[in-house]
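User: Could you check the structure of this?
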Amino acid sequence: MKIKTVHEYKAAPDLLKDKVILVTGAGNGIGKEASITFAKHGATVILLGRTVEKLEAVYDSIVEAGYPQPAIIPLDLKGATPSHYRDMAATIQEQFGQLDGVLHNAGLLGILSPFTHIEKDSWDDIMQVNVTGQFAMTQALIPVMEKAPNASLVFTSSGVGRKGRAYWGAYSISKFATEGMAEVIADEYEGTKLRTNVINPGATRTSMRSKAYPAEDPKSLKTPAEIMPTYLYLMGDDSKHDNGICFDAQ
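Assistant: Sure, the predicted C-alpha cells are below.
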C-alpha cells in the first residue's frame, strides 16, 4: 500500500459542512477528538461506541460548542451481529439519506504476550472487534455511502500492521487484516465516488498507548488534537482522488 503524509494540511472552517460522518470508538481518545473536530468543521457526526456515558459527554461537548447536533449509537462491536449493522444502516439511511464518511477507529489491543501464549478467547475478541465487526459494519454501510456525492471510508492501522513485531500478536495480525480489507475495497471501488484509505495515527497520547507502554512518558507523545490534520484531509473533498493509500498521521 502506498504511503502518504499530509501533516501540514490546513482545513477550511466549513470543510465538512452538510456531511454526515460516522465515527466508531467515539467515546474517548482519537475517536472523541475526531468527532469534535469533524463537528467543528460542519459535519453532523454519528457517535458510535460501547459506553453511553462517554458518548453523551462527547455529544454535550459538541452541542455546547454550537456545532451541528450529533447522533449517538451505543454498540459494542464485540457482541454486535450483522443484523445490528443492517438495522443501523437502515436507520442512518432513513434519518440522513446518505453517509459521507466512516472512520473505523474502535480497536481492541488485548494483552501483549509471546505468540505461543495468545489465548483463544483473547484472539477471538480482538479479531471480532478489529476485523469481523469492521467487515460486517462496512458491508452494511457501503450502500448508504454510495448515495453520497463523495464518500470516504477510513480504516485505522498501526506500525505493527505494516511490519509484524514480537509480542504484539493478535493485535498486529488484526491490523495486517485491516490493511488488506481496505486494499480490497479500494480496488473494487476504484473510479467510483467511494474512496477507501487507511490512517496510521502513530504514537499518540491515548489510554491504549499507555496500556501498551506503561513506563512511557505520555508528555513525549503527540496528543490526538495534534494529528487531526490528516483526519480532516481524508474526510473532506480535498482527498476525493486518493484511494488505496495509507496515511501516516505523524
